[in-house]
């Protein structure tokens, strides 16, 4: 399946982004527990600056079971997200909202991706979001399954071998931004 016609993307499209592994470096076998642990991936700020001009809404959807495991507090998570949003803004980008699920993966009826609870929250806050005009960008199978379950186009970042096929794959968020720029300007 192709993302085309993406030349009509400017205007009413929404961009959903996973956090760890897409926006920032994913700590190996750990969690971003405080602001000092958060490191933007190369090119992310440039990509977000460009996306700011293109997408009507930019939403971060992130599983954060480190809170559920007691490894960090919800206040620390909010501090990280507030800092991230402000830093992105200072660098010409925008993140309209961040939805996180702090449930353990083992919890029954949890809200973690690929469950659609966070997508529903975003649509309640921003009723103009239409899944058929939305793209989910992630680096794991649960991100891609979340996007597909929600009726969005899907983009996989990185080289993870997953059993579900994304609509497109790029090495980085910046590579995806370059692709969008090329499509829109052609």
How does the overall form come out from the CA principal axes? Answer: globular
Runs in which pLDDT lies below 50 for 5 or more consecutive residues are: none
Separation of termini? Answer: 20 Å
The number of helical runs is 6
Mean pLDDT: 93
Report the β-strand fraction as a percent range: 15-25%
Q: Strand pairing plus helix content: what structural class?
A: alpha/beta
Order of helix and strand elements from N to C terminus: EHEHHEHEHEEH
How much is the radius of gyration in Å? 15 Å
Strand order of the largest sheet: 3-2-1-4-5-6
Biggest sheet record? 6 strands, parallel
Approximate helicity band: 25-40%
Record field, number of beta strands? 6
What does this molecule look like?
The protein is α/β, with parallel strands linked by helices and 186 residues long. The model has no long low-confidence stretch (mean pLDDT 93). 34% of the residues lie in helices and 16% in strands. Strands 3-2-1-4-5-6 form a 6-stranded parallel beta sheet.
Layout of secondary structure:
Elements: E1 14-17, H1 44-54, E2 57-63, H2 65-68, H3 74-90, E3 97-101, H4 117-125, E4 134-138, H5 141-150, E5 153-157, E6 168-170, H6 173-185
Parallel strand pairs: 1-2, 1-4, 2-3, 4-5, 5-6
Quick synopsis:
This protein has helices at residues 44-54, 65-68, 74-90, 117-125, 141-150, 173-185; strands spanning 14-17, 57-63, 97-101, 134-138, 153-157, 168-170. It is of the alpha/beta class.
Give short descriptive properties of this protein.
single chain, 186 residues, alpha/beta, 6 helices, globular
